[in-house]
Amino acid sequence: MSEADHIQRFAISAESESETKTVVEARDFEFVIDEPTALGGTNDGPNPVEYLIGAWAGCLNVVVHTVGEERGIDLENVEIEIQGDLDPRKFLGAADDVRAGYQELGVTIHVESAADQETLDALSEAVEERCPVGDNIGNPTPTDVTIEAN
């Protein structure tokens, strides 16, 4: 079986409802992305960078449970906190010498477990290595953005 036989494609479609509000469809689900009122939005949903780290938290949750189960580690009450700092000046066109995205992200996964810290450290390392969303955040991923007239 070739490597290509293992590839799964994921896709979404999104439609702009306003300058700040987007409705996204993913499989049979729909969700709203919007900016807070302080950034000109209507605050009808999390903003794009909040969804990004929210997606990472969701992925980390799946992976920590999967790897924990594989290793026989009982995990209860998993809670994930992610925080990051972002300088909006590039997005706003006010500076070219800063990144448009997060400058740094930090994750803390809180668990109740009888496992010792060495076991939890090894679990953390494996989870970070195996999380698809974390992989995309932590490593360059080729992108191709095209704008076409209808």
TrEMBL record:
Coiled coil: none annotated. It holds the Pfam family OsmC. PANTHER family: HYDROPEROXIDE REDUCTASE. This is Putative OsmC-like protein. The lineage of its organism: Archaea, Methanobacteriati, Methanobacteriota, Stenosarchaea group, Halobacteria.
